[in-house]
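re: the backbone from monday

yeah here it is again, tokenized this time
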């Protein structure tokens, strides 16, 4: 993108954000890339060296829970070494301006939005920091502490699983309902660092568009969301988002 057209698009995006009363945001793995976490697709992505069916489905867990836990424990260990980046912090500033009119919907399970200080966060794919008992269903926040290869519930003794959404599973009802409401009611929908190919999450973009929200996309390259976007700002979110904040 030539620098002049980026400046023009930044100005237009600023205007849309300034006049919006309700803003919803959908983030994906790209926003955490500059914190040092791998995205899912593409070279070096988490799904490149790993078959989804081996580690991220209920069947995989039933077949080989230790293998699944090794994959998630490695990802949990990575969390202990990373911090939010300027993109995460910029979203906190947008929330500070809008208060209740701001909803942050994330597909990320890394918890970095909350670490940065975002408050109204909907983690539609769950969180690596939480575990859930397959027996009694109790959910507990274990942060980034290291867990055994096969952790068990202290209350009932059954196995624990990561409290994340696997393929072939439904999204958590209440959180998903709130995400749809926010996407359906906003004037401006930001889509940041996602390939927008994973449904139902990507359907939130169509939902926002159908309700006539302006869609502002931020990504280092065009994605499946680009054809729905009013504006696509091409560049790293850790740079583009702070630029937007400066202009607001
Ligand atoms: P993907 O790996 O599919 O896409 C990451 C996106 O981030 C790509 O479009 C990149 O171009 C973009 N990107 C990379 N670095 C960036 C940067 N610095 N700034 C802005 N954009 C950048 O990850 P997701 O779209 O998050 O689901 O994947 C969605 C879901 O699919 C995940 O939540 C996961 C996965 O399977 C489950 O595990 C249920």
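seq for it, each position gets an aa:
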């Amino acid at each position: 993108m030539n620098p002049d057209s980026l400046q023009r698009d930044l100005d237009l995006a600023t205007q849309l954000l300034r006049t919006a009363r309700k803003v919803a945001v959908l983030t994906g793995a790209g926003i955490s890339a500059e914190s040092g976490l791998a995205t899912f697709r593409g070279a070096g992505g988490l799904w490149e060296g790993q078959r989804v069916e081996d580690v991220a489905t209920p069947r995989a867990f039933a077949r080989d829970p230790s293998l699944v836990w090794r994959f998630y424990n490695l990802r949990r260990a990575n969390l202990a070494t990373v911090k939010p980046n300027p993109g995460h912090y910029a979203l906190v500033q947008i929330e500070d301006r809008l208060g209740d009119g701001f909803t942050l919907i994330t597909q990320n399970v890394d918890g970095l939005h909350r670490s940065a200080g975002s408050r109204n966060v909907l983690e539609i794919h769950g969180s690596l920091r939480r575990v859930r008992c397959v027996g009694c269903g109790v959910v507990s926040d274990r942060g980034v502490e290291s867990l055994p290869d096969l952790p068990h519930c202290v209350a009932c003794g059954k196995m624990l699983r990561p409290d994340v959404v696997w393929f072939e599973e439904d999204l958590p009802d209440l959180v998903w309902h709130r995400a749809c409401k926010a996407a359906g009611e906003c004037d401006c929908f930001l889509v940041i660092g996602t390939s927008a190919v994973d449904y139902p999450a990507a359907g939130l973009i169509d939902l926002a568009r159908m309700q006539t929200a302006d869609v502002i996309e931020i990504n280092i390259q065009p994605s499946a969301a680009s054809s729905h976007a009013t504006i696509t700002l091409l560049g790293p979110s850790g740079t583009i988002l702070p630029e937007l904040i400066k202009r607001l």
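The beta strands are 23-27, 102-106, 121-123, 126-133, 139-141, 160-164, 188-192, 214-219, 231-234. The radius of gyration is 18 Å.
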